[in-house]
Amino acid sequence: MTVAAIELTPRQRTWSAFRRNPLGLASGVVLVLLALVAVLAPLIAPFPEGYGADTSQPPSAAHWFGTDDIGQDVFAQVVWGTRVSMAVGVSASVLAIVIGLLIGVSAAYFRRLDTPLGVLVDLSLSLPVLPLMILVAALAGPSVRTLAVVIALFSWPEVARVVRSQALAIVPMPFVSAAKVVGGSSLWIVRKHLLPGVIPVVGVSVVLTTSRAVLAEAGLSFLGLGDPNSWSWGTILHKAQQSGSLASAWWTTLFPSLAILLLVLSTTLLSVAYNDARNHRSDS
Amino acid sequence: MRFIGLRLARGLLTLWFAVTVTFFLVRLLPGDPVLAVADPNMTEELRQKLLADFGLDKSLGAQYVDYLGQLLQGNLGMSFRQSVPVTTVLMERLPWTLILTVSAMVVTIALGIPLGVLAATKAKGWLDRLIQVTGVTAQSLFVPSVGIFLMYVLGVWLGWFPIGGAVDLDATGFGATLSMLHHLVLPCLSLVLIQLGGYVLTMRTTLIDALGEDYVALAKAKGVRPGKVVWKHALRNALLPTTTIAGLQLGTLVGGAVLTETIYAYPGIGRAIYEAVGQLDFPVLQGAFVLLAAAVVAANLITDVAYGILDPRVRTS
Amino acid sequence: MRRSILVFAALAIATAACAPSVPGQSSSSQSAPPANADRLTIGTTADVVNYNPLVGNSRTDSWVTNLMYPHLTQMDESGKRVPYLATEWSYSDDGKTATVKLRDDMKWSDGKPVTADDVVFSVTTVQKEKFGVVAGLITALDKAEAVSPTEVRFALKRPDGTFLDNVGFWLPVVPKHVFEKAPSVQKFANDADWVSAGPFKLTKVERGQRYIMQRVDDFGPGTPAVKEIVFRVFPDVNTEVLALRNGEIDLIGNVLPPATATELKNDPKVTLQQIPSLGWAHLQYNTKRKPLDDVRVRQALAQAVDYEAIRNIALKGYAKSSNSSVLTPSLPDYVDPASKEYVFDPEQSKKLLAEAGATDLSLSMIYDQADPNIARWAPMVRDSAKKAGITIKLQGLERNTYLDKTLKRDFDIYAGSWAVMDNPPANLGLAFKTGGFINYAQVSDPKLDDLIDQAQRALSAADAKAPIQEAARIIHDQVYDNVLYVETFNIAHSTKWTGFKPMPSELLSILNPLSLAAAKPAG
Fold it and tell me: What are phi and psi of C113, to 5 degrees?
């Protein structure tokens, strides 16, 4: 090892390794672009509503992604869909992570809670997720908020499991026992020692849970359980399915599908790259 | 033995939880199950009679106790809509779901192991990158889109595969088996595509770790050919996590089969669930959930036990 | 580019791996080009849920059981009743007795003849156990009796000119000797060993996949040309269209969404059969909620809908105007030519709202999210109302929630459609008389009730015409119902088949028993 390498903090080393991974960087750029599209949607295209004279037109200069069966611009739908799909994805993921963190850390730190919480996680993992989501979404009625909550409710166990195993490795460490001995409160120990230890793992989870949430949102909307007052990628596909033009008006299917693929793919690649970068420490 | 007993108890507890949660969820669904059977202009008298027939006139608590009692005797109740036992409804569907999920799992593993090994041995090389990107891309696909794409290209354009269904009407004997496989290809392919990526990536990571271990280095030092080292030593070591994933994925597979079965008109449990939600057929819904939860619990149990046998360290922890 | 090729290669590998032993040419699913009379395959999007024709009420249930259990009458294209099991039917002069004569050449599949006893049993069971659609339509029935094996007499409590139309069209006739053994006919699953009398008999069921029916050689009205009818289950109309193009099915049972119809119109291998709807799509305003109880507000809402756009864009022109009348062009016997469609005029609408003191109107509108047409035009209703300063919030609901809210009358605006309104006096009674069970708008208008009663007592369409037209005018002027359009259904079948006998409504269309019995290969 060179002297310079020794001087780098782990975070800096991860970053320098990450920078050398073209896939990871490209994914990051794509995600930033998608986020920009979501935020700037009103500047990019008008909100898709009403109807137009050019119905079921293939992509052209006037309509980059073609038009649907009532003449709305598919490009505008995809742009505005980015907003809802990402919003649902991110908020579901944040919610899932908060729940997962709480449960995972509690299970690791308070040993008595470990078994009951373990059973809870087992239980949640043993329920068939999509059918249950269908059930809950039907129960709560379709809205963007419902979707986010429903998806979060079924996504936290994975996070909890990862967090718990990471936290379990930290709890027995000398500095934690030391903190206990000097009378540090549990909350303080968790905040000061446990959370910083598990956050890197959670970083990966955020990304993965978001992509899963986006897929789940698309699935639910596709089955007709989405929010009729807003556009998401799943809603576009659902409307294409309802009009019976999934296969023939290929542009109404292809572009929202590509958008889903792009978002999920880049989040996954990003997390893989991040993981690889963290593991670089041993072989740099 | 004690380990197995503990695991079994935990499995049963999980199953009971699953039954309870789904029991109440199903009954919270909006709508009136009686309406799904009779006309809205039925008399109050008929309505009460139907409610009593379905056992819906009692309190939720009493219904729950009744249901658990029935369940212990292996009785899943009668379908509201079809007036036949739920067991009959589900048993018609179960074989198809099993065929689909098991074949998808076998193919995933059969493709996943060599691809994982390949990626690990060429780690950071272009082949590794390629396998990773392809795997991750496949994993990120949205099932309904893939379904329509595959049916359109391979079904309508090329005419290689049938659109939906599980077996041809006229096929008999060996022909029926062939026809069944023929119908299986597209739905199976969809499931494999979305499962394969995760599998390969995990295989790769575990193998890279294993390749760094001392005994592999030792084997190399002893002059064993590198290829042989990978295949023999490392692979055996990587089988443990594979078992875990296989068990876990069975759960997601069975659940994930809902979309796949719906898209391909495959007559499995997943589609039965989707239909039962629409028909407010509580007993069928409930029965399907019990069955799925039991399958996942059993798969996890088997994985855990297999893990315990393969790796003695687990038993003590 | 390179990536897509590689993905495709990976795809091909996986394909091969999925089916290690299937050679390409073993695909028996591709039917040979010329159709023969051996088999007609029909695509549907649902399984048969209940084989008991007196209970089953889904589309597929009806299609299959209609081929097995005869009805007294069928319907011609103008909605007039035509003979099926019944040859003649009439009322006595006082309207309190109805008589039906039956054909004598119909047999149950176990060899027993279909007789008046079976008809009496079927109608009496429904009357006694009070289930299914029919129960609500035969409230006038006192007693049914078999005068002879081929003649049934119905004694009525009051003169009811809608009775024979209703019983004839809606009541499936079931075999008494089989169904009477069940302790409760309503709970009788009838899921095996079927004894039936239609042109086809159900012989094999592969749940989730298909229903196989064989022809009945000695079917009274004539031996069917097709040997075998197969109903195949698909997830949605998209896959049905793929299967039709692929030659795997010969007919799509479900109505095509307008966009799909537009597109299949140009397919040389597909024939589109146009079928008039007996129902209509509409908006209903909850007259028990403020400010919707004010007729000016309802008129304002009716003038804030762009009817032309809905018919031309959402329905692609596959819809007729009903001139905002509940007497639709599908039943020419009753149509009132004087009726005028509400005018789309947001300015007028604003004025009416100002008069009624209902400015800043904000209402919610419920509809079934799974109904492809309504899901299409509901946003258009919202957008056109916005021009009149009215806010409409869409509540596209899952089907059961939607039904629940409808039954509880828990909505401001209801968007939906009525499927089969085959007899105006009977149907308007259910829909607009005080307390009627599909009176979603909660109309309560004594004058209207009286006119509908008059029309029901009339023993012929000619006599019923004057009062029912008057009733329809009140419904129009008071905006008790806002009829948007009458859909023209498109049913697609392969050009390899011909000879279908179309009847109105998606329930009958070209899948009615007499039509499938007449279907034959083209050329």
Answer: -75, 155
Per-residue pLDDT reduced to its tens digit, B23-81: 888 887 777 777 766 666 566 777 777 788 788 888 888 989 989 998 888 888 888 87
Instruction: List CB contacts (< 8 A) between A126 and chain B.
Output: 14-15, 18, 251, 293, 296-297, 300
Joined tokens for residue A280: 């670089």
| pLDDT value for C7 | 38
Asked if B168 and C28 come within 8 Å (Cβ–Cβ), the reply is yes
Report the predicted TM-score, pTM, of the whole model to 2 decimal places: 0.83
Q: What integer is the mean pLDDT of C471-496?
A: 96
- Cα–Cα distance, C404 to C407 (Å, whole number): 5
Cβ-based contacts of B262 with chain C (< 8 Å): 235
Do the beta carbons of residue C485 and residue C315 sit within 8 Å?
yes
What is the sign of the dihedral through the CA atoms of C229, C234, C240 and C244? negative
Per-residue model confidence (pLDDT) at position A14: 75
Select from C239, C489, C282 the least CA-distant residue to C374.
Answer: C282
Of C238, C395, C400, the CB nearest to A241: C238
Pairwise CA distance, residues C8 & C287, whole Å: 59
Q: At how many degrees (to 10) do helices C2-18 and B173-211 cross?
A: 130
Whether residue A244 lies within 8 A of chain C, CB to CB, comes out as yes
For chain C, the average pLDDT equals: 88
User: In the predicted model, what is the mean pLDDT of residues C205-226?
Assistant: 90
Write out pLDDT tens, residues A185-226: 777 777 777 777 777 777 777 777 888 888 888 888 887 777
The residues facing C232 across adjacent strands are C43, C210
Distances (CA, A) of C197 to A97, B270, C228, C511: 62, 35, 16, 17
Non-local CB neighbours of C367 within 8 Å, separated by 6+ positions = C374, C375, C378, C394, C395, C396, C397, C402, C414, C415, C416
Nearest to C374 by CA among C450, C311, C442, C281: C281
A 243-262: CB under 8 A from B: 246-247, 253-254, 257, 260-261
pLDDT band of residue C6 (cuts 50, 70, 90) is very low
DSSP C205: E
Tokens 């008929």 belong to residue: B46
Report d(CA A7, CA A18) in Å as an integer. Answer: 18
Burial class (CB in 10 A: 0-12, 13-18, 19+), C70: buried
Q: Are C286 and C409 in contact (CB under 8 A)?
A: yes
**How high is the pLDDT of residue C35?**
58
Residue range A125-143: mean pLDDT, rounded: 71
Burial classification of residue A42, based on how many CB atoms lie within 10 Å of its CB (0-12 exposed, 13-18 middle, 19 or more buried): exposed
Interface predicted TM-score (ipTM) over 0.95: no
The rounded distance, in Å, linking the Cα atoms of A142 and A146 is 6
Strand, coil or helix: B34: helix
| % of chain C with per-residue pLDDT over 70 | 93
Q: Does C227 touch chain B (CB under 8 A)?
A: no
Q: What is the pLDDT of residue A112?
A: 82
DSSP β-bridge partners for residue C498: C520
Check if the beta carbon of residue A107 is closer than 8 Å to that of residue A166.
Answer: no
pLDDT value, residue A57? 86
